[in-house]
Amino acid sequence: MFEGYYWIILFIVLLVVEILTLGLTTIWFAIGALCAGLASLVTDSLVIQIIVFVVVSVATLIFTRPLVKKHFNNSRVATNANRYIGESGMVIEDINTLTATGRVEVKGQEWAAKTTDPEGKLAKGTTIVVKGIEGVNFIVEEKEKI
Question: How far apart are CA 62 and CA 96, in angstroms?
Fold first, then answer.
């Protein structure tokens, strides 16, 4: 019966860690510790309590985490910038990836740009295609190389 106190203490510690981090990382184990604490009221077997802890923790992690992340972790801000991937444009300021300089114009908008070119350079006037986005920079490639 004494192990029940340890499970409740573990539950409280994990709950406090979850509250402090807000990362949805320890709540599953806190639920497992609570269930193991309840199991200690029924049995004195530490092995059974540990099995309850592991099974409940893993089950809640597997079955509820995707649902919780979908509904409660919506901090990602959609920018619609991905719509530019695959679009053609023009280099309007020489691109030098090593010195982090260069700009392109795509669909009438001006963007900072880097290149996938091995030399890391593209000259002004080069026709490009947007291959990706990294931070605030378009990752571009010369159109003829596609």
Answer: 46
What pTM was computed for the model? 0.48
Residue 102 to residues 66, 79, 82, 89, 116: CA-CA distances in angstroms?
Answer: 40, 22, 20, 13, 13
Per the CB < 8 A criterion, the answer to whether 113 and 104 are in contact is yes
With beta carbons less than 8 A apart as the criterion, state whether 86 and 115 touch: no
Hey, which residues does 110 pair with through a beta bridge? Answer: 105
Residues 108-145 pLDDT 10s: 889 999 988 778 888 999 899 999 888 888 999 988 75
Whether the Cβ atoms of residue 3 and residue 22 lie closer than 8 Å to each other: no
Two tokens, residue 3: 């192990």
